Amino acid sequence: MSKIGVWIAGASGSVATTAMAGAIAIGKEKAEPTGLVTALPQFAGAGFCDLADLAFGGHEVRKPDLAGELEMIHRSAGVIAPEVVALAKREFPRIQRRVRPGVAIGCGKPVEKMTTLKLIGGRTPAHVVGGIRKDLAMFCRAEHVDHLVVVNLASTEPPFPRMACHASLNKLLNAMAKPGPSPLPASSLYAFAALELGGAYINFTPSLGPDVPALLELAEQTGGLLTGSDGKTGETLCKSVIAPMFLMRNMRVMSWVGHNILGNRDGLVLDDPRNKASKIKSKDHLIQSIVGYAPDTLVTIENIPSMADWKTAWDHIHFEGFLGTKMVMQFIWQGCDSLLAAPLVLDLVRLAVLAQERGERGLMKQTACFFKSPLGVEEQGMSEQFQMLTDYVLDR
Length: 396
Description:
The chain has helices at residues 14-27, 66-77, 82-96, 109-114, 125-142, 169-176, 186-196, 213-222, 235-248, 264-270, 273-284, 286-291, 337-357, 382-393, and strands at 4-9, 54-60, 99-101, 147-152, 200-203, 225-228, 252-262, 296-303, 310-320, 326-336, 362-363. By secondary structure, it is α/β, with parallel strands linked by helices. It folds into 2 domains: 4-231 and 339-393, Rossmann fold; 235-335, Dihydrodipicolinate Reductase, domain 2 (2-Layer Sandwich). The strands form 2 sheets. The protein has a 7-stranded parallel sheet, sandwiched between helices. Strands 8-7-9-10 form a 4-stranded mixed sheet. Strand 1 (4-9), helix 1 and strand 2 (54-60) form a beta-alpha-beta unit. Helix 1 packs across helix 2 (66-77), helix 1 crosses helix 13 (337-357) and helix 5 (125-142) packs across helix 7. The protein is globular, with a radius of gyration of 20 Å.
């Protein structure tokens, strides 16, 4: 039986604590695996790891309070059964002892304001990566980990500029050995350390993460795995299902407008225009990718604190049908943010472990259906992406 080490950047956040609570409850057979793609009947013989075999740890920029975060979600959003909360709270103190101060480089002012810990530092960016790597290695030794999976669930970073040093591993290593501003933001520094150890890195955020050629080169060298970016949980999931319908019926989308309101810490961070820019870019490119032309599109994201962990998206689609007739489709998506994302995190961990057991390295293209901006995959239609996953899992 393999021991799976799951290290989370943003370990005390809502998605992280919900995912951990879910893994504990399902692993102890106290909850059903509803929402887990890997629990679908057609995947029953795939040999996915048992959620009871996951050992959690992580990095955090705030004083960690896993039990308090889960209790807050339970109270403010009215979700998660009390018995699941109670079960998780019994396990959380042991996990919390494995949470270490993280990194906030390039994370933007909202995250800097949240920071309450003395974070990993160093004379050079390479020293910072060394500090992250040390924490990961200690975790693997202490928990006798056979497979390491690092998941980025930290807050969305502002867009990070592409640099010449990102083009190759040798150039990036030289840049990171020099004192001064880091050539990578926190999400990418976590990826660097994970890949150096031959682990898997999952970027569930729209932050830069492993999306530079140098880190793909590193993964190929060390046997590491990487995937991302930006988990597809709600409005964009609906877009990836609905947009192909217009293409298949030869109806022209003239405009597609989506308004999003949400609360929680994610809403607070995305209230900053720079951090919001990363998220909007990730959400807004999909329609053109699917239909093959450029309708008028608009995506807005607004922080409404009273929404707590709930989010609502209202989409207005203006399209042209037979004989030039203009028509409208609208939909409303309402969901609990953490409860939508958490099962996908566990799915991706299981898929990463499966890929590790198969001896793979580099991009996990088979996970495209989980992301708004899947790395290395141009296809955006949900049906085609899900077929990629099915073919991979069943090894057809």
